[in-house]
Amino acid sequence: MNINFEYVDVKASARLEELATKKLEKLEDKYDFIVRADVFLKKENNASNKGFICSIKLSAPGPLLFTETNSNKFEMSIVESIEDLERQLEKRKGKLKSH
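Structure for Ribosome-associated translation inhibitor RaiA, as requested:
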């Protein structure tokens, strides 16, 4: 699987890339049909404490899978996004088996 990182109003972070890569590789081990992942990390200034956004697009057979999470920290956003993708992948796997 090819993983691309893009940062918007944030400095590149090897620590965040390592965390996201490790989580995405676990998904790839479970769902071997994943081709590519695009991870977008963005910081928004707003009145609430949230504003650390992680968006992930996964390329796999069928329509693109996408998730976006807004949390207090990038780490939490990454973990929540991966959990959401896992639910989507489980549904996709079920559809692939039925055909």
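Residues 6 and 16 are 12 Å apart (CA to CA).
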